[in-house]
Design brief:
207 residues; alpha/beta; Rossmann fold; eight-stranded mixed β-sheet; 35% helix
């Protein structure tokens, strides 16, 4: 009888141990990504010397569509369908990451450290303001990334904006999230160059 009781107790203990093993914590498969700015060596402003070193630039507002306002990285699977990655995430809100990377690019391209983010204090207004409305910013099933955005550069004092819409694409060299994020960073670099050129043109007309 004692043997049966001992065997039963042993069996229960083994089941409990097996249950604990099954319920033990598993490694989190999530991976986190950020956009990267243009390399410092890629600086046409330094080569041409055409930009005023005292330029003051305000970044924002920057607006994103609701479907991109999420931590999961989005892929456009079809014109009217998007897929959300199960494991790949943005390390911070994409709007904030986009704004900071854009500011780093413009700081490098325009050779200025005088940048501020919207909203700014009334007594610290910048000379020029950059506003961006992002319409699309994701990889697609065709193997490239797309950045579509309406943007404007304005002289804060004159309130005469130069408005444009950019539709940019970059190929994804390898089918992976790393390659897609790298291509998105390159597309943002292309947009940054267009905006920097617009700032230079307005600044040249102002003098």
């Amino acid at each position: 009888m004692n043997r049966l009781i001992n065997a039963a107790i042993t069996g229960v203990l083994l089941l409990l141990l097996a249950g604990c093993g099954t319920l033990s914590a598993r490694a989190d498969p999530s991976r986190f990504f950020t956009l990267s700015p243009l390399p410092q060596s890629e600086d046409p402003a330094t080569k041409s010397g055409s930009t005023s070193p005292g330029i003051s630039l305000g970044i924002g507002p920057i607006r994103f569509p609701g479907y991109l306002d999420r931590q999961e990285i989005v892929t456009r699977a079809a014109p009217n369908r998007i897929d959300l990655s199960e494991n790949d995430r943005w390390a911070e809100p994409l709007e904030a990451n986009f704004a900071r990377t854009l500011s780093q690019n413009l700081s490098s391209l325009l050779q200025t450290e005088r940048l501020m983010f919207y909203p700014w204090e009334l007594n610290r207004r910048p000379t020029y303001q950059v506003e961006v409305e992002v319409l699309r910013f994701e990889a697609n099933a065709a193997g490239d990334v797309q950045l579509s955005a309406r943007w404007a550069v304005s002289d804060v004092n004159k309130k005469t904006p130069l408005s444009k819409e950019s539709r940019l694409a970059r190929p994804v060299k390898v089918k992976s999230t790393e390659a897609s994020v790298a291509a998105l960073s390159e597309a943002l670099g292309d947009l940054s160059r267009e905006i920097a050129d617009a700032v230079r043109n307005i600044d040249g007309q102002r003098k």
